[in-house]
Design brief:
Helix content: 10-25%
Number of domains: 1
Number of helices: 4
Order of helices and strands: EHEEEEEHEHEEEEEEH
Largest sheet: 6 strands, parallel
Strand order of the largest sheet: 6-2-7-8-1-9
CATH topology: Rossmann fold
CATH superfamily: P-loop containing nucleotide triphosphate hydrolases
Strand content: 25-35%
CATH architecture: 3-Layer(aba) Sandwich
Structural class: alpha/beta
Number of strands: 13
Length: 173
C-alpha cells in the first residue's frame, strides 16, 4: 500500500504527471479514474492540457469503483480531479488498509479564493509522497502557486477561458 498526492494550481501539469506514472509503472495493472466534471475529456479518455491522452473510467463517487472489474483487478489506482470527490478521504483510507492498493491522486491545491476544495488534502497525513507542482504565472512568467478567476460568471468549472495561473503578487491584484 502506498499513497502519493499530487497537487498545485490549474495548468501545473498534475494530469500529465499521473500519465507519466502510468507509463513508468506500465508493468502493473493500472486504472486511471476521473470525475465527470473534468472538462478535459473525450468520451472514455482524459486529455491533458498538453494534449496527451489515456483511457479512463469516469465515476461520480469513488465507491462506485467497487462495481468495476478494472478496479478490482488493479494494483495501482490513478485518480485525477480528486477535489471533486466528496468520498475521497474515506474511500482511500479504507482501500489502503483493506485492499493494499497503491494510489496516485491529483487535485487542485485550492480554489480561486485560496480555499480548500473537497477533502482530498486531508489525506496528507496518510501520504507516503506529497508533490506540489507549480505552473507559470500568466502575467509575469514567475512560478505560479495559485489560480485566479478572470471572469465573474456563475460558471465555476472552466479552463483558460475562466482561470489563469498566478504568482502571489498577481493573485492579489
Amino acid at each position: 500500500m502506498r499513497l502519493t498526492i499530487i497537487t498545485g494550481p490549474m495548468f501545473a501539469g498534475k494530469s500529465s504527471m499521473l500519465l507519466r506514472y502510468k507509463h513508468e509503472l506500465s508493468n502493473d495493472n493500472i486504472i486511471y479514474v476521473n470525475h465527470p466534471k473534468d472538462l478535459n475529456r473525450q468520451s472514455a479518455c482524459v486529455v491533458t492540457h498538453d494534449n496527451n491522452k489515456t483511457d479512463c473510467i469516469y465515476v461520480e463517487k469513488l465507491y462506485h469503483l467497487h462495481n468495476k472489474s478494472e478496479y478490482i483487478k488493479a494494483n495501482i489506482v490513478l485518480i485525477d480531479e480528486c477535489q471533486f470527490y466528496d468520498d475521497c478521504k474515506e474511500f482511500i483510507i479504507q482501500e489502503l488498509e483493506k485492499n493494499k492498493k497503491k494510489f496516485y491522486i491529483a487535485g487542485l491545491s485550492g480554489d480561486c479564493k485560496q480555499n480548500k476544495m473537497g477533502n482530498f488534502l486531508d489525506l496528507i497525513p496518510y501520504a507516503d509522497n506529497f508533490i506540489f507542482l507549480k505552473s507559470k504565472c500568466d502575467y509575469c512568467g514567475m512560478p505560479a502557486s495559485f489560480t485566479k478567476k478572470i471572469k465573474e460568471t456563475q460558471e465555476e468549472i472552466g479552463g483558460k477561458n475562466l482561470y489563469k495561473a498566478t504568482c502571489r503578487k498577481h493573485v492579489l491584484n
